Amino acid sequence: MSGATAQAETLPRPAFRPRLGSALLSRGLVTTYLSIMVLIPIVALILKSFEGGLAGFWDAVTQPQSLEALRVTVFIALIVTVINCIVGTAIAWVLVRDEFPGKRLLNSLIDLPFALPTIVAGITLLALYGNDSPIGIDIAYTSTAVAMALLFVTLPFVVRAVQPTLIELDQDMEEAAASLGASSMTIFRKIVLPNLRPAILAGAALAFARAIGEFGSLVLLAGNTQIASIYIFAKIESGDTEGAAAVSVVLLVAAVVILLAIGRFARRGLPV
Amino acid sequence: MSVPRWSKYGIRFGVLFYLAALLVFPVLMIFVRTFEDGLTESFEAVTSEAGLAALKLTLITVAIAVPLNTVFGVTAALVLVRQKFRGKAILNTLIDIPFAISPVVIGLALILLYGPREGIVGEWFFDQGIRIIFSTPGIVIACMFVSLPFVVREVVPVLQEIGDEQEQAASTLGANWWQTFWRVTLPAIRWGVTYGVVLSTARVLGEFGAVSVVSGRISGQTETLPLFVRKQFEIFNDGGGYAASMVLAVIALLTLVFMNLINTRKEV
Amino acid sequence: MGIKVEHVSKDFEDFKALDDISLEVPDGSLTALLGPSGSGKSTLLRLIAGLEHADGGKVYLDGRDVTEMSVQERGIGFVFQHYAAFKHMTVRDNIAFGLAIRKTPKDKIRSRVKELIRLVQLNGMAHRYPSQLSGGQRQRMALARALAAEPKLLLLDEPFGALDAKVRKELREWLRKLHDEVHVTTIFVTHDQEEAMDVAEQIVVMNEGRIEQVGEPKELYEHPKTEFVMSFVGEVNRFGDALIRPHDLDLALFKSDGAEEAMIERVSHLGFEVRVELSMANGDHAWAQVTRAQAEELELEEGQIIFARPSRAKVFENGDGPPTAPTDELQVA
User: Fold this and answer.
1) Cα(A186)–Cα(A193) distance, rounded to whole angstroms?
2) Chain B residues with CB inside 8 Å of A129's CB?
3) Which residues of C touch B175 (CB under 8 A)?
């Protein structure tokens, strides 16, 4: 026997489209603008880096100073990313699950590194941890200072990626696990963390991309620490644009790889 | 999650300490340093000819780059969300590139395209008497490049969330695409657009790396406020540097307040 | 506005949403498109509206070929399942939208909106936003909005689907009354057979992108042309090839011609109606629908042995062959 009630209709249907003319026009405009603004300059960069052929490119990249700059940059950026994963998740957790006076204020402060000009970010750190530090901590011109500046400018990425996921995370799951006898550490490891992992990774990728390219906040406090962006800048200043372009292309490739990697995680709710 | 009280307090104070040490106290120091040298002296630098010129150039840059990127951003978001076509993934990646690459690399790419000597099209512009690099157009283009994705990235999720039913409803009521956009779509995404505009403005105001490369840093001519700040420290006018930094920091804090206001509105 | 649809087909990638559909809807009628999800009923409605375009076939409104015409040009009213309310506009501005687009004079808009607000019983809510309305109120607003520019054709896509049962019933009744008042040709999509039977003058039963049968509610119920229609429009018991409506299964305490022995598994009292679940001698399960009076007379109880005799049954060949004459014989395989 069969009843006569069916489920509500939930068939996927293609998006409603405007008339073809305006669709083509807007798509064309967007593509043109992007090509002029982004694509063509990048093509110019790549062309320059290969001006001396593949060998020229390879020589420029494998120069000891270039390699050293890339190595140091990636190394510090990795450390900064790992710290961001841990602290960023903790901050997101405090902002979502903890309650204390001033939480809202703290929440809006997280975006400060996005709003503050990078040069000012560097200066703030120099003012507190520089050579006339009021608390007697002088780390100016060391790689510790570089790492700190990078932590400053990349702070929001993991926090803002994890926060919405944590808000939407169903606390029923955690309560269920607790009712089954799981300790809070086990609940965190087996329930919370696996659900947050995609968001943490997406935030981490953005933070890493930002860290390997950062310039403004480092320019006053990096000292002799060889950072890729500062190295490229010095090469431009000294007129070696080909060498600068070669190292730039390495950073560019890293950036695109990271972008594509992020594309595999959930995009929604990510900070910009 | 029921967490033992000690670990809850532990995490809370750990987080607060981290943010205080990294964010709050360093930013407060800018204000301390500005005021300890005496206000008038510090602000002499900001109100000097070069300081005012830097402020003016910065504002011009914002006035050109932000509106253009806003129009582009809304159009691009509509194209990405409402249209189906091949190459959409490529378009998507291209839009994100400015977020992922170093500002210095962006500056270099622009020099290699528009530079008077080595730029691919720069020579032609140079022959026409148009200076792009080491001049205002180059600075504006650099700022447009770095701030290009903000509006798109803020509007895309909003468009996805509101869906296209309201737009369909408008068309069944006789609205053409422009009327639909103007009366239905744009009002629905207005807070997303505003948020993107605020972020773009903050970014353009503070852009340093790309502008450093393309500007030539000619005092009073091609110096934006962030470049001016750096210059003050290089010429050991720390007081002036801190004062200019404070101006930028105050703008940033206002931006935060504004972002917060929009966020509360968005929830309505 | 009379509607004619001729040999219309529509594919979504490799899914056949509509398969060579032809249909006529007379001017001024109230028609339901009824079918399960995926039957193509919403697609057909959107195609008539101009929100979708057919891969093949023609659509005529009042004898005019509108197949290539845009939705804006067709001058229809459309009501969406989830209201599609303009969230940033007040009730008043929502309703006025279609008129404002057409550059109608202000005072005319004002009087028309007032009239519609009264018609859909949203008095005093003109300045509220959709978020301040209940689901039922939002849907009435959407209806008023669709009616504002006086369309000659009103199309509703599962208009009451997102509402709770009570509001649904009220709106159903209200839609029927509205149609009596306004007399605009109306087509609505639903998956709820009771809703279709209750509201529509004519029902189009659809399944898998095809029309199974078109007819008045009574005709569909009494003379279904296919097994699908019979089982979708009302409930059925199946005995081998035969389909029997639960109320056509007579229960008696004593055996008579054509009656089968059955054991009562469960008796549910649903007010006036009593549902009797039966386990037949051959192991089949069935249920009979009797009135409370009948149930009391027979003193039905769980575990009781009783005799069930179908007063009407239908056999369809291969499910979609021509229907056979109703039979008085209960066929048990």
Assistant:
1) 10
2) 26
3) 72, 97, 101
